[in-house]
Amino acid sequence: MAFEYDMMGRGDSSRYEYLYRCMRADIESGEAAPGQRLPSKRVLAKREGVSLVTVEKAYAQLEAEGYVRARERSGYFVALRQPVRVPAADVRTARISRRQEQDDAVPVPSGASAAPVSTAASATGASAAAGDGPARPAVQPLQEFHGGSGLIADFSWPAYNPGVAATLWSRALRDTLAHEGDRELYAPQPSRGSLRLRRAIASHLASFRGMDVDPGRIVIGAGAQMLYGMVAQLILHATGASTGMPDAHAPAVGARLPSGVRLPADASAPSDTPVVAVENPGYPRLASIYSAYGFRIRHVPVDAEGIDMDGLDASGASVVHIMPSHQFPTGRVTSVTRRYELLGWLAGGAERYLVEDDYDNEFRLAGRPVPSLASIDVLGRVVYIGTFSKSLGSALRLAYMVLPPVLSRRYDDDLGFYSNTVSVVDQICLSRLLESGDYERHVNRFRTQRCTVRDLFLDALADTPAGGMCHVEEADSGLHFVLAVDAPCGEGRIARLALRHGVRLAPMSGYVQASAVARPPADRRAARIEDMPLPGYGDSRPRFVMQYDGLTPQAAPQAARALAAAVLEANAARA
């Protein structure tokens, strides 16, 4: 029966933690139905033989993570929409445990102005959420709006609010320094990173993503961008290609010509180097990173199901880098059918690889995540990259990749000489957070908070006269959504009007490769990319990438009203 437990079986867990975990398990399994009323705190405390404080702490934790909702003078009820979790299969957990026992027995060798909202954002200045986040724009991050000074909200980049994460990390760091031995904190670590952290990440992936991962194939790095570079080197070595660096005198990748047209990202790359396909619209820095290692770049459109397969086939690429769980910037989720088509594409060439960038996998707000490509890859050609930037902040520079067996062996041969780029203290600190469950609880709380803020903003926007002109797309995939607007003008004008009202927007066109956009036949030189049709969309609505990482509950309604005013002003020309 739900909410009846044997407290004698709690082992080393505290009473509050054991009670919380038991109740959470009942809710997740469906034993407790959505909307069901929980026992009163006094009744449950008497039934389980614990103090009222213990029950209050358990209820508070469940409420913070979104499992239950409190109603004034009515008590606690199971939430109607549960936080997303992907429980690991028992067999996978057992396999990981056995593998960890084997690892214990084998010694591990040590490793010898404002953003341009009125025009398309540039490849280096545009805001992006993938990996470690974007280059910092010239404006200050989100700040309170006081008497007309500053911004109400900045949706153009992930202005992370560090409060909760900073407190969590500070406490964990103090505990790490106080309780971990010097041998653990200061001993040389393998090139791949701390084995303890790699085991903790493997267990985390099993729990959240249902992935059976060998800790020996995990590499820790100081941010996803560093790992992208390592992947590029590994693939070049694996395919026998030489690294051809771009001509020093050639224009920079993504440079703007006087006509407003960007050069192709591979304009100066040697013709014998491999081709990598990236998504369009997509994360601007990817093309720059791969191009820096000598890859030729092909921008392939993204449709409703993911990266376009006809475009991928036509690109001649041997590598494709995608974000299937939450594509940036469109927010789209690659369908299961398209995922298997991508695996079929991998099978079409002996030296093809796929990089799965799962940068904010923990923050899907509704429904269960589609299985990762790495978890269904039978060929061993998928590189899985994850990061803690969204949950703990990009300042900590913590990311990881799971290499397929062939590239994992190649890593030892070709890159094993590198010292690991992440502080050992930080690695042990993160290990403790993952092992204790504190990280999971933090993610659950943060997910609930972000969902609440998003709903505050969208509800307030829907209640304005402009509500019917604003269409929300992909709102449940992660910490950004897309806002499509009915307006007789382009993205640039709406963004300028919104900025005057105190809201900074990121036009979708800022993430589109200009050379891939179909230009109108007339007036080519005067045409601006933000006024052209976006690839992968069936209409011509202006669209904006709404990153709400740093939006506060206090600012959300005011930001919605300010944005609505800008939309109404943009539509006034229609009258």
Automatic annotation (TrEMBL):
CDD domains hit by this protein: AAT_like, WHTH_GntR
SMART domains: HTH_GNTR
Chain coiled-coil ranges: none
The keyword Nucleotide-binding belongs to this UniProt entry's keyword annotation: no
Residue ranges of the region described as Disordered: 95-119
Gene Ontology MF annotations: DNA binding; DNA-binding transcription factor activity
Compositional bias annotation for Low complexity: 105-119
Protein keywords: DNA-binding, Pyridoxal phosphate, Transcription, Transcription regulation
Residue span(s) of domain HTH gntR-type: 13-81
Alphabetical list of InterPro entries matching this protein: HTH_trans_reg/aminotransferase, PyrdxlP-dep_Trfase, PyrdxlP-dep_Trfase_major, Tscrpt_reg_HTH_GntR, WH-like_DNA-bd_sf, WH_DNA-bd_sf
Cited Pfam families: GntR
Family of the protein in this entry: In the C-terminal section; belongs to the class-I pyridoxal-phosphate-dependent aminotransferase family.
Designated name of the protein: GntR family transcriptional regulator
Lineage of the organism: Bacteria, Bacillati, Actinomycetota, Actinomycetes, Bifidobacteriales
